[in-house]
Amino acid sequence: GSVYVHFGALGMARLNADDGKIVWLNTELVYPPLHGSGGSPVLHDGLLAIVCDGSTDPFVAAVEAESGKVLWKQFRSIKARISHSFVTVSVAEVDGKALVMAPGPDHFAAYDLHTGDEVFRVLAPGWSVVPQPIVAHGLVIYNHDYDNPELMAVRLGGKGDVTETHVAWRQKRGAPSTPTPLLIGEDLYYVSDDGIASCVNAVSGERYWMERLGGNFSASPVFANGHVLFMDETGHATWIKPTRTFETVGKCEVPGRTLATPAFANASMYLRTDEFLYRIAAP
Q1: Fewer CB in 10 Å around end: N or C, the chain?
Q2: pLDDT for 80-106, tens place per residue?
C-alpha cells in the first residue's frame, strides 16, 4: 500500500506503507503559506485533491496518485481580501461527476475532479476555513468563516453562482471554527472551539440540543463503539449517546495537550498529544 502526505509549499509525497521509502516527491505546487498547511490530500479515482490557499493567489489542484504528476491547477475565481484557508476537501459524485468540494476565502466552490473546471460556487464572507465539508442527503454542509463561524447547507446539482437559489439552511449558534462536524444518519453533531456541543438535523437544520461541555476544542467528534466522543485540548474526553436528546455516557482524561482527532482501529483508540502517541486498547 501507499501513504500520501502533503506539507504545503514544501511538497507532496507518496511513501511505501511497508518501509516508508519515497516513491515520488512533488514540489511543483509552490505557494506562499501562512501558518503552514492545515489540509490533507484526498484520494479519489486515482487522483489526490488538495487546497493551496496561501497568502496570495490561492488555488486548488489535483495530482495523479500513481505518478505524482500535477493534472490541473485552478486558481480561485473569487478575489478575497484575505486569501488563506486550511481546509481538507471532500470529493463526492454529483450527477455522475466527481466534484471536489472546497470551501475557501469568501466563497465555497465545487470543481470537476478530472478537469479542474469550477462547477458551482456560493458566496459568503470568511477566511481561514478549517473544517472539512460534509456531503450527504443531496447537500454539502460546510463552515465559511473562522472568526464568525456559520454552518451552511447547499443543495447539490446547481451550476455557476447558486448563492441565491441553493442555500437550504444556515446555523450560526455553536458553529465550529476548527472541528469538523460528524454525521450519523440525518443527525449532525458538532462542537464549537469554546466547548459548546450541538446536534441538528442535517436535512432541515432543525436543532435538537445544545450543551456546554467546557474546555476548548480543535479535535473533531468521532463515532466509535456506538457512542460519540468529544476530546478537548487538555485531554478531557466526553462520551455521549448518539441520540436527539443529550445524554452523557462517561468521561475520561489523557495527560498532555490534545489537538489531533482520535482514530479508531483494531479495537483500540489512537491518540496523538504534544508528547506521545497513545494506543488505548479495549480490555
Answers
A1: C
A2: 989 999 999 999 999 999 999 999 999
